[in-house]
Design goal:
Elements lengths: L18 H9 L4 E8 L2 E7 L9 E2 L3 H15 L9 H4 L12 H4 L4 H6 L4 E3 L8 H5 L2 E3 L15 H10 L3 H7 L2 H4 L8 E2 L1 E2 L2 E2 L5 E3 L1 H12 L3 E3 L2 E2 L3 H8 L14 E4 L4 E4 L10 H4 L2 E5 L3 E6 L4 E7 L3 H13 L21 H30 L2
Antiparallel strand pairs: 1-2, 1-16, 3-9, 4-5, 6-9, 7-8, 10-11, 12-13, 14-15, 15-16
Helix pairs in contact: 2-7
Length: 377
């Protein structure tokens, strides 16, 4: 039975009474806002740091990219835009291209290349993206990098595609197309920053772990918002989580080698994750700066959401620990652990783990960076 995402979350029988909940409290550091774990469409465990609650909104940073591509999936399904459409075809108005550097080359870029970040676009000037022309001019074009992954952290190109194709801003489309109502997301459940009156797509959504879980569980349910109610096609979900990078290419993310439709895919094996088997191997993630994660584990129908306000490296360790504790979700806690303050065991153990994180990933990051720089020669 699929979860009806238009309704409030149903609590699992062992909600916050399982051994995983107790183990999780011990690893939440002071930068962790909160987390939530959903399995089989039920809320299994959640916790929030001191002074935080389930209703508090936290900036999702680049998880906004994954929310935005869900909207693109709606437009593709409705025939309002195609993945093969070029930017020149999507934005036919001459005024949108006035003053845009490398305009002729950028006009040949397809929407598929934009979603998979293989368009040859590199970071440029992001200060002002208040018009379509300024968004198109916010990146540089390098023909030698076309076809290779180049992460764009702050270019709001997808939101302008949504606006041009539908005549609606992303927030308007989310409601007019019935997407957010079908997910039980009210106007008060999130904030969405704008640039020039259009909601941003690279970052800017503010929401809570429970609301973040709606996106994760929707994808875990292959696009179904409820039994018999496909909100987005299963084919779009499958394509979103597939690795679209060519052989020999990979992301600079130490945790994920592949990239889908603005979801991180093809997870790299990490120490301790082998015990999770296929659960770890097949998962994919929406992630944002400062430790925001919507991690989907299709093999075990589980979603883990993490919201943080600090160091991304430390937050990734918290996420990994939450993953390792998943087998404890079925084990009832022997006694109440509510008296254990979040982060009680973090200071020593977390510091040790974080130092190991820095040492283990610094070399691999530099190797990948040097390989990318060599392409610029």
């Amino acid at each position: 039975m699929l979860a009806n995402l238009s309704l409030p979350w149903v609590l699992a029988p062992l909600y916050n009474r399982n051994a995983a909940y107790c183990a999780n409290r011990a690893i939440m550091d002071e930068k962790t806002v909160g987390y939530a774990v959903f399995r089989d469409g039920l809320l299994v465990a959640e916790d929030y740091n001191v002074g935080r609650s389930a209703e508090d909104l936290n900036k999702g940073w680049s998880t906004t990219k994954s929310w935005s591509t869900m909207l693109v999936g709606q437009l593709v399904t409705a025939g309002q835009v195609s993945l093969d459409d070029t930017l020149g075809g999507i934005f036919p108005n001459v005024a949108d291209w006035e003053g845009v550097t490398d305009a002729a080359a950028k006009q040949t870029i397809t929407l598929l290349e934009v979603l998979t970040m293989t368009a040859g676009l590199t970071s440029g000037e992001y200060n002002d993206q208040s018009t379509t022309a300024k968004v198109l001019n916010a990146t540089r074009f390098n023909p030698e990098l076309r076809g290779y992954f180049q992460y764009l952290s702050s270019a709001h190109l997808v939101s302008r595609v949504i606006y041009q194709a539908s005549g609606l801003t992303p927030r308007q489309l989310a409601y007019d197309a019935g997407l957010f109502p079908a997910l039980g997301i009210s106007q008060h459940d999130f904030l969405w920053e704008q640039a020039g009156g259009v909601e941003t797509s690279a970052s800017g959504i503010w929401t809570s772990p429970r609301v973040m879980g709606k996106l994760g569980v929707l994808y875990a349910q292959n696009g179904y918002a409820a039994e018999g109610f496909p909100l987005i096609p299963a084919s779009w979900v499958a394509a979103s989580q597939a690795n679209h990078l060519q052989d020999g290419d990979r992301t600079i993310n130490p945790y994920y080698r592949g990239y889908g439709y603005q979801w991180w895919t093809d997870p790299a094996e990490k120490e301790g994750e082998a015990a999770l088997g296929t659960a770890w191997d097949g998962h994919y993630t929406a992630s944002g700066a400062n430790g925001q994660y919507i991690a989907v584990y299709p093999a075990i129908n589980t979603v883990i959401v993490l919201a943080s306000v600090g160091n991304s490296g430390a937050a990734s360790l918290v996420l990994q620990a939450l993953c390792r504790h998943m087998p404890l979700l079925d084990t009832e806690a022997l006694s109440s652990c509510d008296q254990l303050e979040p982060g009680a065991a973090w200071s020593a153990a977390g510091a040790l783990l974080y130092s190991r994180f820095l040492l283990s990933h610094a070399r691999s990051f530099l190797d990948r960076l040097l390989a990318r720089l060599s392409r610029l020669r």
